[in-house]
Amino acid sequence: KKMAGHMGAARVTTQNLQVVRTDADRGLIMVKGAVPGSKGGWVTIKDAVKKPLPGNVVLPAALKSAAVAAQADDAPEGGESNEG
Length: 84
Fold this sequence. Notes:
- By secondary structure, the chain is of the alpha+beta class.
- The protein has a domain at about 15-45.
- It is built from one helix and two strands.
- The protein has one helix spanning about 60-75, and strands at about 20-25, 30.
- A two-stranded antiparallel ribbon has the order 1-2.
- Strand 1 and strand 2 form a beta hairpin.
- It is elongated, with a radius of gyration of 22 Å.
């Protein structure tokens, strides 16, 4: 006999999936392999713990810092004034 109680919402971990591609415009991350959970659910992605990173991997922090540096280069400097 089944008892009443909460079912589901248990965390499921899948290890060593490979990120194939990212699409920043649409906010998508393409992963090679099966992702557990229902469609439209939240997924947490972390770096691998048991395997070392490959040598040619691009870290997300490097992408963010490059974007911030590019914005800083494009921004006008505050020292200019329009007084005659």
